[in-house]
Amino acid sequence: MGARTHLHRSRLATLSGSAVLVLCLLVAGGAALHAQTAPQNLQALIDAAAPGATLTVAAGTYAAPLTIDKPLTLVGDGMPVIQGDGSGDVVLITAPDVTLRGFVIRGSGDSLDREDTGIKVAAPRAVIEGNQVEDALFGIYLEQAAEGVIRGNTIHGMALPISRRGDGLKIWYSPRTLVEANVMRDTRDAILWYSPESVVRRNDFADGRYGLHMMQSDQHTIEDNVFRGNSVGIYVMYGTGFTMRRNLIADNRGPSGYGIGLKEASDVLLEGNRIVNNRVGVYSDASPLRPETNVTYANNLLAFNEIGLEMLPNTQANRFHDNILLDNGQQINVAGGGDLMRNEWAVDGRG
């Protein structure tokens, strides 16, 4: 009799738990879903939700991997954990108009070939906001995902040698991306490649290889960021239209050790930046590349670098005004010899 009673109660408990889950799922499109019971199968909630729904997920630990294949808003209440199993991606977004806000994402695989990632986005207009990504090889990866917003996230890389780390942030063929107010530590690079018209604003990227590496992209704004303690602060290659304004770029002292590096970059404005205690403050190679454009340096502080400004002899059409070069080991160096006379070193007597 006792055994039957115990079995009966166990079945009732199971049915009750199932009823709560079913109740959460039977919601009309666009309405809010609440996973407010003990941790359960979050993928089941996602699969059952109508497109456009909002899912509020209670604190707890939820198993990954997860795939979001319809427009949804997922909001964490109390920073719930989405825990990967140590293989592949933790969260994969394949539908447009997805918002993922307020989660701890951790436990990706460690394959550089597969680019195992904490949050991987492969669709436009994603909003990835207020998440904490940790123990993930690549942190957040937008691949052919235009008009995304990456805001207010904290990204910590895996405890690996820098050559084995993945990129904390990788933006690939994803134009018009906003990267704002994120903190990134102990990753490899933050990369924006083939992703024009993007904005990188108010971020704090430290202790990596490239604080920010931009290549084959045009029309970017990079402002009010901190790039500290990387091998290179900002490196810009093969593009046109870069505004770099009011950034703090300090203590970047790897083998190249550039605060800012310019390689065949055209139509560049460097204004109001503090470039301090790097091996080289600014390095310039064939910038600008396009003869009808220039590179303008205005109101920057270059101080306490081993070399303040290093240019290759092919550098011309650079304009300088109202900059301060202070206590650099060498103020200006021409790498390989030359006179750099095809540059404008002062405007109205102020260089």
The overall pLDDT, averaged over residues, is 90
Sketch the major β-sheet.
23 strands, parallel
Percent range for β-strand residues: 35-45%
Spatial separation of the terminal alpha carbons: 94 Å
> Given the structure, what is the number of helices?
2
Radius of gyration: 25 Å
Detail the poorly predicted runs.
Answer: 1-29
Overall shape: elongated
What class, by secondary structure content? mainly beta
The percent of residues in helical segments reads under 10%
Strand elements, count? 35
Oligomer: single chain
How does this model look, in words?
The protein has 351 residues and is mainly beta. 9% of the residues lie in helices and 44% in strands. It is built from 2 helices and 35 strands. The strands form 2 sheets. It has a 23-stranded parallel β-sheet that branches. Helix 2 links the parallel strand 1 and strand 2. Residues 1-29 have low confidence and may be disordered.
Short description:
The chain has 351 residues and is mostly beta strands.
